[in-house]
Design brief:
alpha/beta; 8-stranded mixed sheet; binds zinc ion; 540 residues; 17 helices; single chain; globular
Length: 540
Amino acid sequence: MDLVLEDAVFVTMAAGLAEGMLVRDGRIAAVGPAEQVRAAAAPGAQVARLGGATVVPGLIDAHCHVSDVGYLAAGADCSQPAAPGIPEIRARLRDAAARTPDGSWVTGSGYVEYKLRERRHPTRADLDAAVPDRPAVLYHTSLHACVLNTPALREAGFADGQPDPPGGAFGRDAQGRLNGVVYEGPMFALFEGNLRRDLSRMDAAQRARLVEMAGQYFAALGITAACDADLRRDSFSAFAAADERGVLSLRIYGLVVHDQVDWLVSSGLRGRHSGRLATEAVKIWADGGMSSRSAAIHGTYPVPPHGSGILFFGRDELTEMITDFDAQGFQVCIHAQGDRAIEAVLDAYAAVLAGPPGQPPRGNPLRHRIEHGGAMYPALIARAAELGIVIASQPGFLSTLGDGFAAAFPEQRDQLYPFGSWRRAGITVAGSSDAPVITADPLLGIRDAMLRRTGDGQVLGPGERLAAQDALALYTTQAALAARQETEIGSLEPGKHADFTVLSASPLDTGPEQISGIQVLATVVGGTPVYQSVSLLPTG
Ligand SMILES: [Zn+2]
């Protein structure tokens, strides 16, 4: 059945604005002047009038953690304002305990201590009062801290007299006893361990449900496709289970963790599994994070723990890994945040992409990427541009984590996440969220790319701000290129998947201050609505 969409502004991101669009068999059949679109439709086509809304290409999140989002969505929502204080968090954890299977930890997430009525982290005693007899964990929204109850501290092997572990810290009470709050390194290990254990215990239907819940979250934000930035065997099976059941509501492009590539190849699951699930990229971590001050930098941080960050692989190891994956035809995506890590990664890419002696460099046909690229200073930008490296980065970090960046990089604060310089250098730059680290809301990312304003109101690098059109491109055309799917998604053009997002206003002419007030009215994947806040489109 043909579906004609009209009475809307279509931001095609390919051929300017249009007045109408025709959807046929899950694809865009025509887009252009209203009369032309009507003329192209079969007799008896359905017509949906969109009440003056704005239609943009389905928004793409080029780097996030879809299964983590689904996993946390299955636990207690302890975010603010849903849970305004610690008594409400306790009640939500108690409810979650009743539905959490034996052997799994009771899980809550999303709190921000300074948004709580009490303006402090909950403690083990707070959690013990809700869940006294089995392990419970409450994750901070940043996923850089969490709170454990007493049974969880015991099961994790954390004891009162213990010193802080390397790369992390424990919160303590006035007597020096653990108060249940765990920061950074041990927190990441706990999250990973809990996720992997719980996924391994789920059957296919439960895994599919987890992906379905994540999909609902992304769909409500207007997202139609995402790169999952640490796909593993268990999360892949969850996506595959959802895909087989027809509940995978967004397209997944998997970045498979480097130590699981052998499994992927031997399982025969590599490649385009379906129109909604593809795994053709490999993820490597070169260093730590910016807000945990573990990104590998030249020099030392002026803030605790005053180190130079952590480099997980040196140039030679990286070169060896990239050579191997490149020869197998994989796109390589390397997490690199600090300038020392970015330098090592560019050295390695340069060695692999150099081509045989005497021959010109072979370009970057597989579109190898750098993930994040936070401290990519001008000389490194020039090298990345010359090599044709693609960048997937997170403008939304600026409003959520930017003040911490400014404290850790006082001299270079205006050069962090240099979206403007990247684009001026001709680099392909994809927008993304790194959710659940921050919200996956792409409108927030678009706003931050335009404003670059931190939570405290500092503007980091005003020269790095993007115009609205370029900010929207991060989440559409540029992200499609970064996921090597530009012939299928990323713009409203005939022949592409009918993936689009209906917004209450256009991000191109709403001022940046108003962008976060734009509402997602509908999200459509392959011609089928996966989210509607108002009934605009026929569902079947
Ligand atoms: Zn990530």
